[in-house]
Amino acid sequence: MFLIGLSPDIVYHSLLATEPNPEAAPLVLAGVLVSLVFIYLASKLGGELSQLANLPPVLGELVGGVIVGVSALHLLVFPETGAVAGDSVVVTILQQIAGLSPESSSEVFASFSEVVSVLAELGVIILLFEIGLESDLRELQKVGSRAAIVAVVGVVVPFVAGTAGLMLIFGMPTIPAVFAGAALTATSIGITSKVLSELGQLKSTEGQIIVGAAVIDDVLGIIVLAVVASLAKTGEVDVTNLIYLIISATAFLLGSIFLGKFFNKSFVAIAEKLQTRGNLVIPALTFAFSMAFLANVIHLEAILGAFAAGLVLDETDKRKELDQQILPIADILVPIFFVSVGARVDLSVLNPTSAVNRQGLVIAAFLIVVAIIGKVITGWAVFGKEKVNRLAIGIGMIPRGEVGLVFAGIGAASGVLDKPLQAAIIIMVILTTFIAPPLLRFAFQGEEEADKADLATANNQ
Amino acid sequence: MFLIGLSPDIVYHSLLATEPNPEAAPLVLAGVLVSLVFIYLASKLGGELSQLANLPPVLGELVGGVIVGVSALHLLVFPETGAVAGDSVVVTILQQIAGLSPESSSEVFASFSEVVSVLAELGVIILLFEIGLESDLRELQKVGSRAAIVAVVGVVVPFVAGTAGLMLIFGMPTIPAVFAGAALTATSIGITSKVLSELGQLKSTEGQIIVGAAVIDDVLGIIVLAVVASLAKTGEVDVTNLIYLIISATAFLLGSIFLGKFFNKSFVAIAEKLQTRGNLVIPALTFAFSMAFLANVIHLEAILGAFAAGLVLDETDKRKELDQQILPIADILVPIFFVSVGARVDLSVLNPTSAVNRQGLVIAAFLIVVAIIGKVITGWAVFGKEKVNRLAIGIGMIPRGEVGLVFAGIGAASGVLDKPLQAAIIIMVILTTFIAPPLLRFAFQGEEEADKADLATANNQ
């Protein structure tokens, strides 16, 4: 009886009857479709309002995500942040109008959330591929040493100041203090590069220094995370793994760029030989996904592989054509990432009626000051005779974004961080993420004023 | 210790430690990335070779799918077709180089396969959206009654001839014979429309009749399936549900086109007001996904909703711009669908050393003859004074594709079909799917000859 009126999809998925739950499959698709509709509505509403307010659209997408996410409407919630099927409005919709049974709800919720999560990850992979395509390898090499300085200063200063402050001012034990200090080191390359791109500043010297520094920072962040996590878990550092990580990260980035110079020509030759649809975009994504996979398996981040792939293909004659074709693909995938980041942010840590949160808010205030100052000063670490917008560089390094959440997550999982410190780190991540886009626009708008201030500082020294 | 060297993704996903298996998440992404690389390689190799052999590229993508799929290399296998983690080369790769533990293998395999399945479904949704955009509503309305005749004849003739033949020639009982007869009625709109598009024949009268008939056939197929499945399960037909299905399908298609005429103007107005990236493609996909969801929840197929959305937006001034932006999106998503269809085909049913298969092959030979003749003659059901390529229309209706597999699947699940009959239906599906693209190209190439033959037939009658 129940088969009457079922769409063929249902049956297709139960082919040979080995699927644990044949009812689930078309509902997973339905769940993904509704989630995407909510994500697109949130991203466009947020992005457009942000644009009208003369703020970077990506900020609006993040806020749109917060509104549809776990903090407000519950249209988009994820099992990883503790949500269950009953918390998801999408599940409720499927139960009300698509005949989802309560027994299958958890399974369907887990499945479509997983798909949306992977789509978001593909989104940030495409974003970094696009940023790689828009970046100029020669320009990056030119700013390489300056970017490295910015990255190193931006890791060392917040780490030392944060750890010392927590121990001296708040009297915290070493390990949680070190952990929270480490959480201050990250920079979200996704958010920063998206804002730069929106401001048309990606190809400026400042833009290239920021992107270069953010890439190096991502690698440094992975190393810091490994050290701190091992310290938190065993009380000592696993040196062998540490060396492996440093060598593989360096080898990957340099190797992929070096080998890329040879691959360039084969890529163009292949794309020109292919005659069927997608002759350019399919080989390009095959390369990008392979590199992302490679980065992923050597324990780097997939997005670093995609960025390297974009850098390599930027050097080819096909660049412009490829840029244009990646554009709509990025347009539909990237918002999934930003809205998801926003949706995972739980604003309830800001509620001051809870004692834990009040304690957290005080620590958070300290962490935020260190987080902002520790990154803003990196701009003044830039050497060279060329006049650069030092304030913009420093501000570009501020957002912790999803990388910061990683530290909060590992801290929660390993039990190193008590509740107030956890809340403080999350508040710091939220604030730095949301404050950086408008500040960055301001820093570039007030370019002349900043330069004057810069000169004044230099004269005072 | 194990945290050293883990990518932040891992930890991000274990945020708050509620994820059942934090190790799994980045490996799911890795599995999706490798699967996509295999899919793209298979689709491009197959598509290009097919093109070189002067065959439609989509045939090559299907064959490429068969080669990477369950029948040969096992690079792409799906749990729904009975594969377990140990059958998947992707799982082996993840175990060898990405540190996937044997305990997590099943979970990771299920998760990344689910994501790839949904990506394939999004691929066919985008394909039908694109076909809708390329189709002309006025042209479709003009051919509407002729398309309806083709669809009805193409359902009735194979159903009656197949059922009668199986009962009279092979002495089968009524219910399995009716079921196998029903499996002969389907037409895969995906494969047919893709070939038409590749041949540049989508906008021809023949192309529009075929697409229109395939859409109607899809709706009829869902109704036939519902009737047969209920017959197989309870021995009688649930009339209430049947009426609901017929009314909702008709209301959906007509209603969406009617309402679409009003929505058109709002869509253009919205797209023109939006100033951020994706101002055209995001509203378009929001609409397409909403319609696909709506179709899905009223137990139609999601692809019918996407097709209706494309038809509606085809009427707007933004059409050309939208066409161009959907192109690369379709280029990266559609091959996932065709390669997946190929990958799910199990060619072992063709192995004549098994007695069941030998029996199946004999029945298959009969089914194939009915399947081809029953659809080819639909071309001659087309009335009107306009001269049309009747052979091409008939051939366009031949491929059963994924829709045929649905019938095999439901038959296997409900126990109505014995092994030889199951195998026979699958063989019929494979052959009609793979034979149609080259035949269709031939029919359009030999257009003049076909017209002559057509005239000769007409004169003989």
From TrEMBL, chains A, B:
GO molecular function, one term: antiporter activity
GO terms of biological process kind: proton transmembrane transport; sodium ion transport
The Cation/H+ exchanger transmembrane domain, residue ranges: 45-442
Record field: transmembrane: 24-43, 55-78, 108-129, 149-171, 177-197, 209-230, 242-259, 280-313, 361-383, 423-444
Main location: membrane
Membrane topology of the entry: Multi-pass membrane protein
Location of the protein in the cell: Membrane
GO CC terms of this entry: membrane
Xref: InterPro entries: Cation/H_exchanger_TM, Na+/solute_symporter_sf
Keywords recorded for this protein, A-Z: Antiport, Ion transport, Membrane, Sodium, Sodium transport, Transmembrane, Transmembrane helix, Transport
UniProt KW Metal-binding keyword: no
Keyword Electron transport applies: no
PANTHER family per record: NAPA-TYPE SODIUM/HYDROGEN ANTIPORTER (PTHR43562), SODIUM ION_PROTON EXCHANGER (EUROFUNG) (PTHR43562:SF3)
Similarity comment: Belongs to the monovalent cation:proton antiporter 2 (CPA2) transporter (TC 2.A.37) family.
Name of the featured protein: Cation:proton antiporter
Gene source species: Waterburya agarophytonicola KI4
